[in-house]
Amino acid sequence: MYIGSKGWFVSELKNIGISYHEGRKIESYDASTLANLLEAKKK
To answer: Which terminal residue of the chain has fewer beta carbons within 10 Å of its beta carbon, N or C?
Structure first.
């Protein structure tokens, strides 16, 4: 898995305990949305 890929963002979000966002599984979002979500949750 490459850093910055969709799978990488999904695994990083799951490592911090996030599996759902706004009632949808995080796997259903695209990589750019996941990147923004990860950035927001790390702050």
So the answer is: C
Are the C-beta atoms of 34 and 13 separated by less than 8 Å? yes
**Contact by Cβ (8 Å): 26, 13:** yes
Q: Which two tokens stand for residue 11?
A: 């695994």
Contacts of 8 (CB under 8 A, 6+ apart): 1, 2
Cα–Cα dist 20/26, whole Å: 5
Q: Is the pTM for the entire model greater than 0.85?
A: yes
Residue 25: phi and psi, rounded to 5, are -65, 145
CA distance 43 to 39: 7
